[in-house]
Amino acid sequence: MATLSIDQRDRLHNDVRAYTVGVEEEFVLIDPATGRPSLTNTTVAAAETDIELQLELSRCQIETCTPVCASIEAVHREVRRARVALIDAAARSGSLPLAVGVPIWGPPTGSITDTPRYQRMAEHFGALAEQVICGCHVHVCVPERDLAVQVSNHLSHWLPPLLALTANSPIAEGIDTGHASWRHVVWARWPSAGPPPYFRSAAHYDDIVAGLAEDGHILDPAMVYWDVRLSAHLPTIEIRISDVPATVLETALLASLVRALVITSVAAIGRGHLAVPIASTRLRSACSCAARDGLASTRFPPALTQLLCHVRSALEESGDYEFTRDALATVLTSGNGAVRQRGALLAGGPANVVDVLSRLTVEGCEADDSQRAI
């Protein structure tokens, strides 16, 4: 088990600013006239903009990245700014980004982005690489790798409610899949995806990654697709369980809960508390239930309330408790992306789902930057 020196405990426990946050959001690009995928990500990424845009596996996907943020207020502001800038960049190519876990209609086969890495993935993994899935990745600074893997062990307990909270992909090929997060189901096909193993140390983590590479399950460390992983190039722990949330409020809520979980986990580790291992079959089953039922489950709204209680001390220390409590109440009352998509499908079919998603993607983005984001 990782143990913390007095200096480490003081630095990490007494200064929430040490837990900086960055958020990556993936979007589907569509043709606004048809609602079908628009294979324009290289054009959109090349547009002149003041935000960072990155290509994804499919030509109908694009990713935004926030700067490193010292507060959840800054995260909320930067996610809002990134969505506005992306919409502007996409409009110049005649496309529209949607915050949705899977596209309402899939792209044609052979739509892999033309970069050497993605083409190599397509050659190695075949049809598996044709999938289009959009997630939200929250990075929290934990520079000590032995500590980070112990944090991962703690976070695993809370992956199912985080997935239920952000589920935003119930519809694929124009029909209801029966799952609140179809993205999670599709994502699970990758051999390196799913809940992370229980780690004894950073060396144990590295041994498992090396084994995945040796067996041909990954081509590089960036293909470690666990729901929690250590970043391959940043001093962060990265939580990847979530669909891209429908709204900026939900993304800020996710980031707040994740950072508070990391802070709470570090505090527990500092007191010498190991995370209790969970059987992999049980954890996968719980995540599958979250993907299927989302907030309609009788278990996950109470689990989210328990999560809020679990991290309350960390949220109060950072000044984020009231925002997180109120934002969570809003989502539990109004519904997340999956709930709203299903309502739109019943009310007006797939075209109405696209219309609703286009509004939700920019919901809250009209706030003036001079105002408080939260």
TrEMBL record:
InterPro entries: GCL_type2/YbdK_subfam, GCS2, Gln_synth/guanido_kin_cat_dom, YbdK. It holds the Pfam family GCS2. Transmembrane segments: none annotated. It catalyses: L-cysteine + L-glutamate + ATP = gamma-L-glutamyl-L-cysteine + ADP + phosphate + H(+). Its EC number is 6.3.2.2. One of its GO terms (molecular function) is ligase activity. Keywords: ATP-binding, Ligase, Nucleotide-binding. PANTHER family: GLUTAMATE--CYSTEINE LIGASE 2-RELATED. ATP-dependent carboxylate-amine ligase which exhibits weak glutamate--cysteine ligase activity. Belongs to the glutamate--cysteine ligase type 2 family. YbdK subfamily. This is Putative glutamate--cysteine ligase 2. It comes from Nocardia rhizosphaerihabitans.
